[in-house]
Amino acid sequence: MPFSPPENGLGLYRAEQTRELDRCAIQDQGIDGFELMKRAGRAAYRALRQHWPDVRRLTLISGSGNNGGDALVVAAMALEQQLEVQMLLVGGESTRAKLQGEARQALEWAEQRGVKVRAYDPDEAFSGELIVDGLLGTGLSGEVRGDYRSLIERINASGLPVLALDIPSGLCADTGAELGVAIRAQLTISFIGLNRGLLTHRGPACCGRVLFDTLSVPDEVYQAIPTGVRVIGPSLLSRCLGPRDRTAHKGSFGHVMVIGGDHGMAGAVLMSSEAALRSGSGLVSVVTRPEHVALCTGHRPEVMTHGVDSGQDLEPLIERASVIAIGPGLGKNAWSGQLLRVAQAQPVPLVIDADGLNLLAEGQLIEPQARDNWVLTPHPGEAARLLGCSVAQIQADRFDAVNQIQQRYGGVVVLKGAGTLVSDGASIRLCCRGNPGMASGGMGDVLSGVIAALMAQGLNPFDAASVAVEVHGHAADLLAAKAGERGLAATDLMAPIRRLLNPSLMLQLESKEQVFFEGING
Questions:
Q1: Which ranges constitute the DSSP H helices of 345-442?
Q2: Which residues pair with 285 in a beta bridge?
Q3: Is 13 helix (H, G, I), strand (E, B) or coil?
Q4: Largest CB tally within 10 Å, which of 14, 66, 189, 351?
């Protein structure tokens, strides 16, 4: 039975919540625990055969946890299909004695079916063409040390493809941080509850492609364990991007004003304003240095451009704006500070990026420095300045960091990076889209323009930011699939963003590069 994500997005869970999902399925719904483990093993084996159909030799590595039990089920299934199986138990007899519950049942069940379980020996070569990782599960919290660390490093150095069960060993299920060292898998399959750390920070680098299987657990299990973190999915875009009224006019879709472009940085406002135009804003204007007016007008004549020397010059222009995007190329000087303070003093909704965030972090805005109708879009460095901490602290728990910024400054916060997070204080949405090709200048300027345009068209800030990061990342994935990640430029995104924001084209352009909702129940 294929899995369909709920209408408000697939839920993401902390490790303790996934354990509670398991408990609820077993105790409250009466599903036998070992039956769930066998379902997981079968699903993992099917995924393995689908992705590596020519592999004939497997090395499976098991620890003392339940994902080790899943590996034992996979080993038995592989043996039944006449594959060569090297089943290694880390810790040997000591670990065998510790096995309890379903993991103990899996060991006995696999051995009854002919699986020979041997103690892991660092001097023994891996005989498989592929490694199945059942070493450490989602309950890991401390740093990986000793023999486990050496084994993970050996697996990574082997060059063999890896299928990780539940989670790559060494990855924190809650935060996506590497706990000293973590497996680099090509494919990860998660069961019943998808851990949020798989999809952000180091999660995407360690997991590879991610598959999720509910193991046919009933909906009542998920209803019993609510979560405030969800994946941005197609249903949100469908709800937010309906067809336009046939009698609409340019005034129906708002006026985005982009403020920035200090000396030498006119390109930032050019990109942001064009992104707003391509994302459907009825009117777009730019406020920048006077010497940039001719350049901006020549580049995109549809955008109205105003040169200002001070914040006083900006005040009468703001009355025309539905939404202001401020920060692209803004700089950090008297001119930029004046413009930001004038914009902040108005009731018009704001999108603040780049140097706008740095000025906010320096306390250069007038009090209060929190409001409900703005969207802040920091990358980890800007987030660290907003909270007065290090980038490492931000990345150590991105979920906590995005909520801290939101609590301090209000509104909606977009914490950019692998697995971008969007928080409105009540819940978090996570974007699975995007790729390393986006690590180039101007990407944030484009995103700011898209967010502002969607707000100008009537989306609330939370929905506008969520749809924007999804479409922004999806556009980059489409381009990378055609021409690769290297050399991807921010302006390349304009055309696919436009197509993705038109619902009639979305299904035709759906990327097949990353599938996080793939149901593989038989």
A1: 355-361, 380-387, 391-396, 398-409
A2: 257, 304
A3: strand
A4: 351
Q: Which of 41, 21, 18 is nearest to 31 (CA)?
A: 21
| Strand stretches in 208-316, DSSP E | 209-213, 229-231, 255-259, 283-288, 304-307
Helices (H), 135-263: 146-158, 203-207, 219-224, 234-240
Is residue 317 within 8 A of residue 289, CB to CB? The reply is: no
Q: What is the dihedral of CA 426, 432, 437, 438, to 10 degrees?
A: -20
Cα angle for residues 109, 110, 114 (degrees, 5° grid): 120
Interacting residues of 367 by C-beta distance below 8 A, sequence separation 6+: none
pLDDT tens sequence across 429-464:
999 999 999 999 999 999 999 999 999 999 999 999
> First CA to last CA across the chain, in angstroms?
6
CA atoms within 13 A on the CB side of 327: 29
Surface-to-core class of residue 297, CB atoms within 10 Å of its CB (0-12 exposed, 13-18 middle, 19+ buried): middle
Question: Which parts of the chain have pLDDT scores under 70?
Answer: 1-8, 504-522
How big, in percent rounded to 5, are the helix, strand and coil portions of the chain?
45, 15, 40
What is the tens place of the pLDDT at every residue in 489-517? 999 999 999 999 997 665 554 444 444 44
Residue 90 and residue 94: Cα distance in Å, rounded? 9
Q: Tell me the three-class secondary structure of 38-87, residue by residue.
A: HHHHHHHHHHHHHHCCCCCEEEEEECCCHHHHHHHHHHHHHHHCCCEEEE
- Reading across the β-sheet that carries 84-89, which strands appear in turn? 117-119, 84-89, 57-62, 130-134, 162-165, 187-191, 209-213
Position of tokens 């009537």?
458
> Is the preceding peptide bond at 368 cis, omega within 30 degrees of 0?
yes
Are 151 and 172 in contact by the 8 Å Cβ rule? The answer is no
Residue 411, phi-psi category: left (phi > 0), alpha (psi -120 to 50), beta (remainder): left
Three-state SS for 88? strand
Crossing angle, helix 33-51 and helix 101-112, to 10 degrees? 60
